[in-house]
Structure formats: structure tokens, C-alpha cells
Amino acid sequence: MSWNSETKTFTGKFEEIPEELYEVIEVWDCSWLQLTVLPKELGKLTSLRTLNCSWNQLTSLPESLWSLTSLRVLTCYRNRLTSLPESLGRLTSLERLFCSGNQLTSLPDFLGKLTSLERLLDCSDNELTRLPESLGSLTSLQYLYCERNQLTSLPESLGSLTLSRTLDCSYNPLTSLPIELLRNVNSEIDISHTPIERQYGSHLVYKRQTLGMAH
Question: Which of 102, 115, 160, 164 could form a disulfide with 136 if both were Cys (CB 3.0 to 4.6 A apart)?
């Protein structure tokens, strides 16, 4: 257990947090603690901007997440999550979501409400069979990592994203790519170790002029 007053970072279990810090903490790191649950009371951390609960044994996240209205970064990778709570859709200030290395079979449609999610969405290394069409609403998203899942296709709505940095969908059983995605994306698309790698090459760096498509 530790408290850094300069960065306003608390490292340790929730029950170790002094009550006088509830409204002060901006970063809570409870990773690597073998936690099986997060307390409902975490909603009391009203100034929290970063939550790192990775490398635990969590099977779910509490609905009280909706109270963390200042949250910018949620890191919950390497747990045993099978779904994401609906309350996550109310975290409209969220900029980065790391949920890789879990047991997710699908992502909820409400992710499309997280319009501040402009930096990164990492849902790699799960058991996803589809991505929601609502991801097309995240028009400022720069990085999307969905490698090492069970995706056979990508939603057509991804064609509305600029994805100015990276789209990694490698190690999936992909059989096609949305044509609008190829028209619009100005980023590297990693399709290595997929059935369509031979068709397109392992890494595509597509710009609109590459395909010679007029708009």
C-alpha cells in the first residue's frame, strides 16, 4: 500500500484507502492483488481519472462505475471478464479502454456512446466473434486493437473511422474487409496471420489515393 501525494496515486486495496482521500485520489492502481471483485464503494472516488485493475481474477466490473464521471483511462486487462457492465456506457469522459486478455465473447453496443474514446480501444486476446456496428460512432478513435480473437469479419461502420494510427486485426479468421474501411482509413492495417493475408499482404498502409477511389 502506498500513496503519492504529488501524482495523487494510491496503490493497494480499496479497504486500505483512508476516507479522507476518497475525493482526492486521481489514480488508483489495484493491479496484481489477486482480487476477485471490486467494491461497489469505488464510486466514492469522485476525482478518479485512471483505474488500473489489471492482472487480477475479476469476472465482472461493478455497475457503480457510472459514478466515476472523471475517469479517462480504464485498464482491466488480464482478468476473467466475460462481459462489460452497462454502466460503462455512461463514462462519457473515457479516452482509453484496455480490456485485452479476458474472456469477452462480444462487446456491447453502448461502446458507441463513448465519444471521448479518441485515443485507444484495446480488446485484443479475447474470444470475440463480432464487433458492434456502434464502433462507427467513435469517429476520433486513433488506435483499435482487436487481434487474437475469433472475428471472421469487421463491421461496415468502421469505414466511417479515420483510425489515424493503427488497426490491428491480426490472428483472426477474417475472410473479408469492409470496402469503406479500405477507402477511408489513413492508417496501418495489420492482417497478418489471417486467411486474407495472402490476398492483401500482412500489413496494409492504405490511403485513399492508394486505391484510386474518388469520393
Answer: 160
CATH number (domain holding residue 54): 3.80.10.10
Q: For residue 18, what are the CA distances in angstroms to 3, 30, 161?
A: 10, 15, 43
Phi and psi angles of residue 22, each rounded to the nearest 5 degrees, phi first: -55, -40
Q: To 5 degrees, how large is the angle CA 85–CA 119–CA 43?
A: 35
Give the Cα separation of 164 and 172 in Å (integer).
22
Q: Is 102 exposed, middle or buried (0-12, 13-18, 19+ CB in 10 A)?
A: buried
Q: Which of 155, 99, 91 is nearest to 125 (CA)?
A: 99
The burial class, CB within 10 Å (0-12 / 13-18 / 19+), for 140 is middle
Q: Measured between alpha carbons, how far is 51 from 11 in angstroms, rounded to an integer?
A: 10
pLDDT tens column, 9-42: 999 999 999 999 999 999 999 999 999 999 999 9
Classified as helix, coil or strand, 34 is coil
What's the structural domain count of the chain? 1
| pLDDT-derived band at 211, boundaries 50, 70, 90 | very low
